[in-house]
Write a structure and sequence with these properties.
By secondary structure, the chain is mainly alpha-helical. Helix content is about 20%, strand content about 0%. The protein is built from 1 helix and no strands. The termini are far apart.
Length: about 80
Amino acid sequence: MDPAKIKATVDRYNANVEKGNDPDFGRNSLSSGFGKPAKIENGPFYIYPSVPVMIGTYCGLKVNPKAQVIDVFGNRNNGL
């Protein structure tokens, strides 16, 4: 991988974190409105080949950080 392209990507990501908005992926949180993206600043960092794995699904039930199902008002659904 081209080190200059990696640096440019990290610099863009960090600038977007400072703005509080990620126009590349249309998000302002880590997932479902929870968690704040953090800058990539302190190494060492490593790049290695990997394959994608699905660890969750989207467009299903909304959950809070404790993995409890919540309704459209943000209230926990005790039955699920």
